[in-house]
Amino acid sequence: MTLLSLHPKNVLEEYFSGYRKNITGDQQTFESPFGKKRIIYADWTASGRAYQPIEKYIQDEILPFAANTHTETTITGSLMSQAYETAKSIIKAHVNANNEDVLIA
Questions:
Q1: pTM exceeding the 0.90 threshold for the entire prediction
Q2: Where does residue 78 fall: left (phi above 0), alpha (psi -120 to 50 degrees), or beta otherwise?
Q3: Three-state DSSP class for 95?
Q4: For residue 22, with 0-12 CB atoms within 10 Å meaning exposed, 13-18 middle and 19 or more buried, which class applies?
């Protein structure tokens, strides 16, 4: 018997609390017919909520260099092309794809 099986909700809530506090809108409320309610987001299948550490990285490190990936004649285009290729490599490694597998982006 594990600690998780004894108190699964408490253990999971504590484990994920560090992540939850960084989710944009985690404490967001809305007016419902039953008064003010907190949004409960439960559809993480196709898309998730914005996660602040990732959003900050994108804002600070990617967006200042955002450009067309179809050109290598500028520093911004070169950096975006390099970032795109690196991202594809990371995704292929994550799903154990090999050189014969194609990633459709």
A1: no
A2: alpha
A3: coil
A4: middle
Residue partners of 4: CB distance under 8 A and separation at least 6:
11, 12
CB 92 within 8 A of CB 101: yes
Q: Bridge partners of 29?
A: 38
Specify the amino acid at residue 103.
L
CA–centroid distance for 12 within its chain: 20
- Return the closest-CA partner of residue 72 out of 85, 59, 63, 62: 85
Helices (H), the chain: 3-6, 8-20, 52-57, 75-94
pLDDT per position as a tens digit, 35-58: 999 998 888 787 888 999 999 999
Cα(5)–Cα(95) distance, integer angstroms: 30
CA atoms within 13 A on the CB side of 68: 5
